[in-house]
Amino acid sequence: MNATIPIPLLNCLQVKKQEESCQLIPGGLINQTWLCKTPLYPFPVVLQQINTHIFKKPLELIHNHRIIYETWLNQQKTLTFKIAAPLPFSNSDYLYHDQLGQAWRIQEFIEHVGSITKTPTSAQLYEVARCFGEFGNMAQLINKHSLYPTLENFHNLRHRYQQFQTAITTGNKVRIHEAAELIKQLTHRVNYVKQFDAIVDSPVHFPLRVRHHDAKTANLLFSTSTNRVAAILDLDTTMPGYYFSDLGDMIRSMAGKTNEDHTTWEDIAIDADAYAALLDGYQSSMEKYATAKENAWIHWSGIWIIYMQCLRFITDYFMNDCYYKTAYARQNWDRAWNQYYLLKALEEHLQQKISLTLPLN
Ligand code: GN1
Ligand code: MG
């Protein structure tokens, strides 16, 4: 992906010069995003080049987005957050294909004041988690069969473990050799995969639920003037899944004292107050509909998601970085170790705090 918007697309947006009207928004490991001013709309729009190596059927993203947006529109009076409206281009299509076959879309930009800081307060974290819980609540109104599974097996831990094992046999030999210790640590935790299998096998206790599946800080707009979540973004992976995904991703991205890019391993630790605030906030929304088993198994959410993210990063490293955008050669290696240390910190935290017994091999 490069940072140039094709001229015919600029014309379609009635924009004369990219530098004057469009500003690249950094971050995001998958798609490329700009904020643009266009005479087509009286407000700025978010322009996105969809990564079609990953999302092979971009029309499915648009379809899902429109269904979720409609659901939000019908419920908005009872909801505290916004969803950005998917917007048509001047030819009334929601998707634009450039000459290289790349897919582009636009959506509403939601104005907000401020953003969540590096060290959010417990009250802010409670609010974020309550809000993602409310999103899950709203999503109960969506007919599960009307959404496309935009990425098959996305949070399927069994599938991610299999991809990891395949990468160990088919991937970059030098990288695999170098990662012997991490492979050992991840294999030692294979029983997490068995716990996940048990969930899949118990649909009464663990029903399929529509989840966001990327509930991290970067995917929300937080307004510091109201101390409320202004909007929930990036609905590309909102599809049926299990109860643990969104809470797990929030713990992964917000309960640590450092972020996903941090490479000084000694600093990686769980912030006990942040963890508690996320759990309380999510449960305050989820309790209304959660099953007894989902409540009883709530603390595994962060463990399984961080474990899965570590498997995904190291798998991508073995496969020569074909999935995640990287800014330097060993970034996936660093990301994987970051997630491993975060996992270890969370395991220790939960062993001490709630006497969680780890199912280690
Ligand atoms: C990716 O969409 P983006 O860049 O925020 C990834 C998530 C990972 C995340 C790690 C479609 O998120 O699953 O958790 O990176 N999205 C996809 O930060 O794979
Ligand atoms: Mg995403």
Tell me about this structure.
- The chain has 361 residues and is of the alpha+beta class.
- The chain has two domains: 7-111, Phosphorylase Kinase, domain 1; 122-354, Aminoglycoside phosphotransferase (APH), C-terminal lobe (Aminoglycoside 3'-phosphotransferase, Chain: A, domain 2, Alpha-Beta Complex), CATH 3.90.1200.10.
- 44% of the residues lie in helices and 11% in strands.
- The protein contains 13 helices and ten strands.
- It has helices at residues 7-12, 18-21, 58-75, 122-139, 157-170, 173-178, 180-188, 191-200, 244-254, 272-286, 292-296, 300-318, 331-354, and strands spanning 22-25, 32-36, 45-50, 86-87, 96-97, 103-108, 209-211, 220-223, 228-232, 239-241.
- Strands 1, 2, 3, 4, 5 and 6 form a six-stranded antiparallel beta sheet that branches. Strands 7-10 form a two-stranded antiparallel sheet. It has a two-stranded antiparallel sheet with strand order 8-9.
- A hairpin with an 8-residue loop joins strand 2 and strand 3 (45-50).
- The model has no long low-confidence stretch (mean pLDDT 95).
- The structure holds 2-acetamido-2-deoxy-1-O-phosphono-alpha-D-glucopyranose and magnesium ion.
- The site of magnesium ion has 5 residues, from loops.
- 2-acetamido-2-deoxy-1-O-phosphono-alpha-D-glucopyranose binds next to loops.
